[in-house]
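Narrative summary of target 7.
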Amino acid sequence: PFTVFAPTDAAFALLSPDLVEALTNDPSGQLSQVLLYHVLNTEVMSGDLTDGLLLATLQTENIVVTISGGNVMINNAMVTVADLQADNGVVHVINAVLIPSTVGVEYLQAADYNIHIGPNPATDFVNITFGEDLTRTTYLMVYDINGKLVKQEQIQNQFSQVNTSDLRSGTYVLRIQQGDTHYFQKLIIAK
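Modeled conformation, tokenized:
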């Protein structure tokens, strides 16, 4: 039996065109590595997942489980549908594509890299503060719990404020992109 963490179509749409081109140009190399990074060689149900659990993928790199406030994250992807039984295992739907380190694209926790996001929970705005001046083009994307892009804008200053008044109460994922580096942060909107 297998466990598959299956990204939604919306999750694949979040990948940069350059990355998609690189993956499709190397189907037996990098693309294969990405696909194997989504599969475990054993059946793992949602009830088996614990905070901080490391799971070995068929690609050989571990993925990490984070559980907070009822949300289950696999690396930086949120599980949106769990425990879909299949003949040969189980599928968990996630809202982002998992990228192993061997592919050369980094997905990092924003707080670990001196990027401060708050207030969190937020209501009508959220402040984003970078530890240093921005030297590269920086984009902010906000995704709802289903992986749908609900807001996107370019950030140009070390200290930026993003209007969230148009977002409903709920859990979102912020993605900050600088070149091939992607930083993530969970954001709660509470109105």
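The helical segments are 9-13, 17-24, 30-36.
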